[in-house]
Write a structure and sequence with these properties.
Layout (H helix, E strand, L loop, with lengths): L1 E2 L10 H24 L3 H5 L1 H32 L7 H23 L3 H20 L2 H8 L12 H4 L4 H14 L7 H29 L10 H23 L5 H18 L2 H9 L6 H22 L11 H26 L11 H24 L5 H27 L27 E2 L1
Antiparallel strand pairs: 1-2
Helix pairs in contact: 1-3, 1-4, 1-16, 3-4, 3-5, 3-9, 3-14, 4-5, 5-8, 8-9, 9-10, 9-14, 10-11, 11-13, 13-14, 13-15, 14-15, 15-16
Length: about 450
């Protein structure tokens, strides 16, 4: 007699987290519009705290839901371990949704005391959601010698360990912001300049190296590339403070800011990617586009370090705009949509590109680059073009919402628990991941 526990549910759990991300990104955008159009003395006097809270909705909120959705669904399959506890996923979603909603309530309250109280609760909930991922992160880390280390290496098993630490650091940064004036900017930099670039690179490599098996990076080089990329990102993180303290020249700082993105772009082997495209090899267009925005992230970071371009106090830097929406936003949504087609077991040769979503995202990013060029040419901050870009980003949010509502509630396609391609990682594909037969 064979006894086993099926944790098959986890391979399709991305649906819950994707729907959470879809609706919460609309909430984020609505809150951002509120701040941008209802500007008053409250926002002007508390701009740093309001923007930090808003950006936590972005970085630790709905974008983290996409990352968690990929992790909950794919990692148990490729490491052939039992799916993560369902109650953990529900807890993560509840904490994430409540955290974002409470932050929004605080921002639109127009009351500083109420805002600080609600923002503290909301940020704490978001950080707690990350800390709750410690157990599954360690489960994957302990499996680092399995088959997937050949195609993705530490880009797969190491990144989850950053998330609980990030949650603790972010929470401390908010609590200690009055004592340490730079704590909020440091926390933002850790999220958007270190963790997000690592996850974006991981998703891109996962798509081309693992899913499509193009081997854009040789397996024996994965670990070295990860280590160098991590070091370069860390150097870029500390070079600005060193420059401001007079310990680093402007030129050296600008070069360091540019290096991580040029390095990872070259390591992704764009020549081979273009060659595969010329051979008409199937791939996801959103992930492809995200690769070729990477050099623009590096160039814009260097231009900002030189002081060639300017933004208004309420705007993010241009390189961060391009990194978040041109690279991370596209590759995450692209990966999730490709995974969804895998679950429907649609041949990769007949899959359709969502051209309206693709166009709106890349037009918006192109407008951001043009705004940066205009700022460089004029020597002043530009507001007109970024607003047009934001309108196109808003359009992409709405189109993504429509697509996933249609796919979730109105699709007539068959949906399978174990997606195509990933069966090869399982010792017992019919029983799902983590199956261990025991003979009585």
């Amino acid at each position: 007699m064979t006894r086993w526990r099926s944790r098959h549910w986890a391979s399709g759990s991305y649906i819950d987290l994707v729907l959470t991300a879809v609706f919460m990104q609309i909430l984020f955008f609505t809150t951002a519009i509120w701040v941008g159009t209802k500007g008053n003395t409250f926002y002007e006097q508390n701009l740093e705290e309001v923007l930090f809270a808003l950006r936590m909705q972005l970085g630790l909120g709905w974008m983290m839901c996409l990352i968690a959705g990929i992790g909950f669904s794919v990692l148990p399959l490729i490491y052939d371990v039992q799916g993560f506890d369902k109650s953990l996923m529900r807890t993560f979603i509840a904490l994430n949704i409540c955290g974002q909603a409470i932050i929004t309530a605080g921002i639109i309250s127009n009351d500083i005391d109420l805002f600080e109280s609600l923002a503290t609760i909301g940020i704490t909930l978001l950080c707690t959601s990350l800390v709750s991922l410690w157990s599954p992160a360690m489960t994957i880390f302990r499996q680092k010698t399995t088959l997937d280390s050949n195609s993705l290496g530490p880009f797969s098993y190491a990144l989850g360990a950053f998330l609980p630490i990030l949650g603790v650091v972010t929470s401390l940064a908010w609590v200690l912001r009055d004592k340490y004036s730079s704590s909020l900017s440091l926390s933002e930099d850790l999220i958007f300049e270190l963790v997000m670039p690592l996850f974006a690179a991981s998703v891109i490599i996962s798509h081309f190296n693992r899913r499509l098996e193009w081997e854009i990076i040789k397996p024996n080089k994965i670990g070295k590339i990860f280590a160098i990329y991590l070091v370069l990102l860390f150097l870029a993180l500390i070079s600005d403070p060193l420059h401001e303290g007079g310990d680093l020249s402007e030129r050296v700082n600008a070069i360091i800011q540019c290096l991580p993105y040029i390095f990872i772009f070259l390591m992704l082997n764009p020549r081979q990617i273009v060659g595969k495209i010329r051979e008409r090899m199937p791939h996801n267009k959103l992930i492809l586009a995200s690769v070729f925005w990477l050099p623009f992230v590096g160039i814009s970071a260097s231009m900002e370090a030189f002081g060639y371009v300017e933004t208004t106090p309420a705007m993010m830097s241009y390189h961060r705009w391009i990194l978040i929406f041109g690279v991370a936003f596209q590759c995450l949504w692209g990966f999730v949509s490709y995974l969804h087609d895998d679950h429907k077991k649609i041949s990769i040769h007949v899959r359709k590109t969502q051209w309206l979503i693709f166009s709106s995202m890349n037009i918006a990013t192109s407008i951001t680059v043009f705004a940066m060029y205009t700022s460089w040419e004029s020597g002043s901050a530009i507001e007109k073009y970024p607003r047009i870009g934001i309108a196109f980003f808003a359009l992409s949010y709405i189109l993504i919402l429509i697509y996933w509502v249609k796919e979730t509630f109105f699709s007539l396609d068959d949906w399978h628990k174990v997606p195509m391609f990933y069966e090869k990682y399982l010792a017992h594909p019919e029983q799902g991941s983590g199956f261990v037969p025991n003979e009585d």
